[in-house]
Amino acid sequence: MNALVLKLLAQRIALALLSLLAVSVIVFAITAVLPGDAAQEQLGQDATPEALAALRAQMGLDVPAPQRYLRWIGGLPRGDLGMSSTTQLPVAELIGSRLPNSLLLAAVTALFSVPIALSLGIAAAVWRGSWFDRAASAGAVAVVSVPEFLVATLAVLVFAVQLRWLPALSYVSDIESLGQLLRAFAMPVLTLCCVIVAQMMRMTRAAVIDQLEAPYIEMVRLKGASPLRIVLAHALPNAVGPIANAVALSLSYLLGGVIIVETIFNYPGIAKLMVDGVSQRDMPLVQACAMLFCAGYLFLVTTADLFGILANPRLRK
């Protein structure tokens, strides 16, 4: 690894950290200007100004916003996410109880979506212009055009209401067998996979086609290499960087699409916790969940960027 690669890696990591700092300012500013607060939510509309002022002082809401931001951002590196305004429990404890559920949902979705999307994308690129390529591309565009909340609603109507094959709500606390696990995750994973597979397939197809149309591939063909060897030994190794970016960008969709999926299926994850925090004006909880989603997104994108740099043969030598 030469000095240029190390410099590029350090620049990407520093840019990710600066982006996360900028996001923290935006998240705090947005939550600070939202109408109402936790004190008003707890005491109701009939609360006296004196009672509201006392509760706001107890919650630390009477402190100026810049001071609250510095105190909040200073506690994040130490894992101090503050106290929930509604439950008076540590926010880290609330998130810790839901985070494994969200990670499990993301892992199961990635386990199914990544192999399917890469296989379809590579096959469509190899057989570009064929009926398979046209059908796969048209299906991907059609699926991407459908909002995830509509896919989730249709899944509930078909598989839970009409056919009664699957439960309408996903409960992960009473799973005792593989069959119960599949039943609980079938519709959330199906909903998330629809858009993820379509996006990843299209980007993978474009990355492989870009390599297959490169001049060096023409030289490999003139040397008599078989189509399988051209794809596996020459095109795919040079398309690793773009494909890694395609996988990271597609999986980052989980961080946004999971909010709708967890809400519709009542899945006990981080996104559902964040939605409940917004309805209760629990700003410390909302801020921590938003930062967690942003950090996850930046981690995926930065990891793909670093992997693309390391996989670039022109930078290694």
Mean pLDDT value: 80
The geometry reads as globular
What structural class should be given to the helix and strand makeup? mainly alpha
The CATH topology label is MetI-like fold
Counted up, domains total: 1
The total of helices stands at 15
Distance between the termini: 8 Å
Q: Beta-strand level of the residues, as a percent range? A: under 5%
Q: Return residue spans where pLDDT drops below 50 for at least 5 consecutive residues.
A: none
CATH superfamily: MetI-like
Q: Architecture in CATH?
A: Orthogonal Bundle
**Mind summarizing the main beta sheet?**
none
Structure description:
- By secondary structure, the protein is mainly α.
- The protein has one domain (95-316): MetI-like (MetI-like fold, Orthogonal Bundle), CATH 1.10.3720.10.
- The protein has 15 helices and no strands.
- The chain has helices spanning 3-32, 38-43, 49-59, 65-75, 91-126, 131-144, 148-162, 178-212, 215-222, 227-238, 240-252, 254-264, 270-279, 283-311, 313-316.
- The N and C termini lie close together (8 Å).
- The mean pLDDT is 80.
